[in-house]
Amino acid sequence: MIRSALLATTLVTPPLAGPIAVIGSVLALAVPTAFLSLDQSLPAGACCTTYLPFVILSAVLMGPLYASIVAIGSAGLADALFMGPRYHLFETPMDSFGNTTTLVSSALVIGLVCLFRKVLARQSRARTHQSKSGVIFSLEKGVAWASWTGSSNPVNLGPQEEVAKMMRDFLAQLELGRRLANRSS
Fold it and tell me: Any idea where the domains of the chain sit in the sequence?
């Protein structure tokens, strides 16, 4: 639950942009390339899958534009450096197939991240419009909970009976305060 809340919060926040996103894109290409260059005996298809988690991370942190740049760069780097003879592109039909599947997989991942981002933003807007005060009370298995618009975890207020008694007391104090204020006017 905590990890999904962190991911949801990350997807709702605006993606990185500018120089930080450029540096992030370069790192998203450099790190898997460095990993792959350590082992020269990789099977031909393994190089493309090594880049995919970095495309996902780029889509989550930097948005679709930079993630697309990372996806295209990863397909090019994988083909140029790790498939067939070095620095040759599309030597065999298998290279073309590998690059195509890498790009299609990356496009699907980027599209899903964009879709999740839109759905979470829509839910966040809907929650904001539901409660004018921002406080939402709920009851689950006899326990009262309070949450606030934008917060991820509700607060346990206690057993239903105790919370109801405290709320009645609070409302009575408010009413007494109003009556005393009206008398002094």
Answer: 2-130, 135-184
Secondary structure, 3-state, the chain: CHHHHHHHHHHHCCCCCCHHHHHHHHHHHHHHHHHHHHCCCCCCCHHHHHHHHHHHHHHHHHHHHHHHHHHHHHHHHHHHHHCCCCCCCCCCHHHHHHHHHHHHHHHHHHHHHHHHHHHHHHHHHHHHHHCCCCEEEEEECCEEEEEECCCCCCEEEEEHHHHHHHHHHHHHHHHHHHHHHHHHC
Mean pLDDT by 10 residues, the chain (185 residues): 68 84 93 80 63 91 93 85 66 72 91 89 64 73 81 81 90 88 77
